[in-house]
Write a structure and sequence with these properties.
The chain contains twelve helices and 18 strands. With about 375 residues, it is of the alpha/beta class.
Length: about 375
């Protein structure tokens, strides 16, 4: 996708040929900046502090983090230690574990002297595959948007509500939930996106709105709790969200607040679709509520907000009393029964175990 007319991915090798560049999402939307990662420690910190975020991008960054670690020490013990350090950065997104397992399985048979070059090549393969995967998700989701548009009066936009950021900033390119939107917009289908602000970190306000604006997609920012009102008044045609982990039975773990949107959608007859790559499916878990660990982040993310000052600087201010404690659950689980379909790179399926297993037969570790 493009930033001010210049095409970017979210992660790429630097011109020096070995260090790794990422878009610093902590600086958005106030400034566009690139962070350079030169070590395992810097890659871990980038994931932990959400300089990079979004399940597919976390996976790609963890792969590059292992590559950076192997530049220092390519032994078996060092590789095991690096994988452990990367796995500890974010507990919910399953792509992180998937990417590291893929790297480790491919690298263990390679002599240490050849591991750095093989790791660098494999990181590029993982990144390129993610781009192709998201593009395919977009094509399958585009078909759903076309059907909705065909049923509307001529000239009326398709109104889509999304939550958090499942855009190209959360992947290597294209995004998951936004890929169908971008393709519909580029195909001349009028679309309008209701962008949830997505408290507490405001990824909708700061990231989704920013990237939609860069691509010229009409959008309106709303507070998180406005979704039900919009649906009650017929102002939402469908919901498109992403996921950080999906069970084999179709339960979806996504940014906290997704479950409430699904409940409102079901109550108002609004189709609720989840866009995901197959790498986000955790085939070892059947019950999302009981089986997926929910990350609890620093309460300061709830009690403080950051924004641009009138003079152009950026400041963080406290919005709660000094002695108020805050709980910060980063994700929630939407049960499969509230989801109309899962939009994957392999096609659109209902959220159930039989459909998912059939779609990804031979690709889920059994």
């Amino acid at each position: 996708m493009k930033v001010d007319g210049i095409p970017y991915r979210t992660i790429w090798l630097d011109a020096d040929g070995w260090s790794v560049n990422v878009i610093d999402q902590m600086r958005l939307p106030h400034a566009f900046a690139v962070a350079n990662l030169r070590s395992l420690a810097e890659a871990c910190e980038a994931i932990r502090t959400m300089v990079v975020r979004g399940a597919p991008l976390i996976g790609a960054t963890s792969a590059y983090g292992l590559y950076l670690a192997l530049r220092e020490d390519a032994s078996d013990d060092a590789m095991t230690s690096a994988c452990s350090a990367l796995l500890a950065t974010r507990p919910t997104a399953v792509n992180l574990r998937w990417a590291l397992e893929r790297m480790r399985e491919a690298l263990l048979p390679v002599p240490p002297a050849g591991r750095v070059d093989r790791a660098r090549s494999l990181c590029g393969e993982i990144a390129d595959e993610d781009v192709r995967t998201c593009e395919s998700i977009g094509r399958h989701g585009l078909g759903i948007i076309r059907e909705v548009h065909a049923a509307k009066d001529p000239g009326e936009p398709v109104n889509i509500l999304t939550h958090c950021n499942a855009g190209w900033l959360a992947t290597v390119d294209w995004g998951t939930a936004t890929a169908p939107v971008y393709m519909a917009h580029d195909a001349g289908i009028p679309v309008h996106v209701w962008v949830d602000e997505t408290r507490p970190r405001n990824q909708g306000a700061g990231l989704t709105a920013w990237e939609l604006g860069m691509h010229g997609v009409p959008h309106t920012l709303v507070v998180d709790n406005a979704g039900g009102h919009l649906m009650q008044h017929g102002m939402v045609d469908l919901c498109l969200v992403g996921t950080d982990r999906t069970t084999r039975t179709g339960d979806v773990c996504n940014k906290v607040g997704t479950y409430l949107k699904a409940l409102a959608a079901r109550d108002n007859g609004v189709p609720f679709h989840v866009c995901l790559p197959g790498t986000t499916i955790d085939w070892s878990v059947s019950d999302g509520v009981g089986g997926i660990p929910i990350e609890q982040r620093d309460g300061n993310e709830v009690t403080r907000v950051s924004g641009t000052l009138p003079g152009g600087g950026v400041a963080t201010v406290r919005i709660a009393p000094d002695d108020t404690r805050a709980a910060n659950y980063a994700f929630d689980v939407t049960p499969a029964r509230l989801i109309d379909s899962l939009i994957t790179e392999r096609g659109v399926v209902p959220p159930d175990e039989t459909a998912l297993a059939g779609l990804f037969r031979g690709h889920h570790g059994e």
